[in-house]
């Protein structure tokens, strides 16, 4: 019975821990001309932002999707700055809690930017 009680106690504590470290996502549209630039930008994002778990930059759709650990806050302006020389081309930015907030479906419409 004691072991069962410990197991239940640990299970009940897990959601609180996960909520405080919820993964974040960010997505946007951009204008980057070639795959070599996308590959370099992907490398730079992973290198300069250790909390990033996944980066997907698609040349055909000009869409970015990133997932972070949630250990650091992420604002729209922070995310845009990750695009370095292409930050001026970024639009339709959405940042949210991964698995909680609804992601805008592609193709993005009604962008405010």
Can you list the strand order of the major beta sheet?
A: 2-3-1-4
**Broad structural category:** alpha+beta
Helices, by number, come to 3
By DSSP, the count of extended strands is 4
Our Rg estimate from Cα atoms comes to 18 Å
Categorize the overall geometry. Answer: globular
Strand content: 15-25%
* End-to-end distance: 58 Å
pLDDT < 50 stretches = 1-19
Helix content: 25-40%
Largest sheet: 4 strands, antiparallel
Overall average residue pLDDT: 85
Strand-and-helix sequence, N→C? HEHEEHE
Provide an overview of this structure.
This protein is of the alpha+beta class. The protein has helices at residues 2-20, 35-48, 76-81, and strands at residues 24-29, 52-58, 63-68, 91-97. It has a 4-stranded antiparallel beta sheet with strand order 2-3-1-4. Strand 2 (52-58) and strand 3 (63-68) form a beta hairpin. Mean pLDDT is 85; it is low at 1-19.
């Amino acid at each position: 019975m004691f072991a069962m009680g410990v197991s239940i106690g640990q299970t009940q504590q897990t959601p609180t821990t996960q909520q405080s470290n919820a993964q974040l996502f960010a997505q946007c549209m951009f204008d980057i001309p070639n795959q070599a630039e996308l590959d370099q930008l992907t490398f730079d994002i992973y290198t300069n932002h250790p909390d990033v778990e996944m980066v997907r930059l698609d040349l055909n759709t000009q869409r970015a999707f990133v997932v972070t650990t949630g250990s650091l806050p992420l604002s729209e302006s922070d995310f845009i700055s990750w695009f370095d020389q292409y930050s001026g081309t970024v639009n339709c930015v959405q940042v949210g809690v991964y698995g909680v907030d609804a992601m805008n479906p592609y193709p993005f419409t009604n962008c405010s930017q």
